[in-house]
Design goal:
The structure is a single chain. The protein is of the alpha+beta class and 149 residues long. The protein contains 5 helices and 6 strands; from the N terminus they run ααββααββαββ. The protein has a 6-stranded antiparallel beta sheet with strand order 1-2-4-5-6-3. The longest helix is centred in the last third of the chain and has 11 residues. It starts with a helix and ends with a strand.
């Protein structure tokens, strides 16, 4: 999919639109994605910080979508599990930056070459405007080569 179309579709997707999550950057090769969320009255919790569910939503399902685009139709890529650790209160604008480097792509291809399932754990920090980490999200993906290809 064209990265510009992908960005548009994500930014009008109701769950993201409704929480104020904005995809600000997609690399042409899908190796980098940046997500931003401004603090608004509708994404704050009772104590006046970012709602934890919105922080988590910022990270779902971008590693999966990136790897689907990078690996192509010969691979099955699914989100299998996820965890979030809240480090400090999220205030103001928060950002998550996703990176998939060539070393990871090569490792995926090696690990799945004989039909095995590979379950990489990929971490993405969510940072505030000062660059402090407010939450750490670990995504576990399910990746394997498709049968009969």
């Amino acid at each position: 999919m064209n990265p510009k179309l992908f960005k548009l579709l994500i930014n009008v997707y109701p769950p993201y639109l409704g929480t104020g999550i904005v995809l600000t950057h997609v690399a042409d090769d899908y190796s980098r994605i940046t997500i931003r969320m401004k603090e608004r009255f509708y994404n704050r919790n009772y104590v006046g910080t970012h709602f934890g569910g919105s922080l988590y939503a910022m990270t779902d399902p971008f590693y999966m979508l990136m790897l689907i685009q990078i690996l192509g139709p010969k691979y099955v890529v699914w989100d299998k599990a996820s965890s979030i650790k809240f480090v400090k209160p999220g205030k103001g604008t928060v950002t998550a930056e996703f990176h998939v480097d060539q070393a990871l792509v090569e490792k995926i291809k090696r690990e799945t070459a004989d039909g095995r399932v590979f379950l990489p754990e990929l971490t993405v920090p969510i940072k505030n405007e000062q660059g402090d980490i407010v939450a750490m999200v670990v995504k576990t993906l399910y990746i394997r080569k498709k049968d009969n290809l």
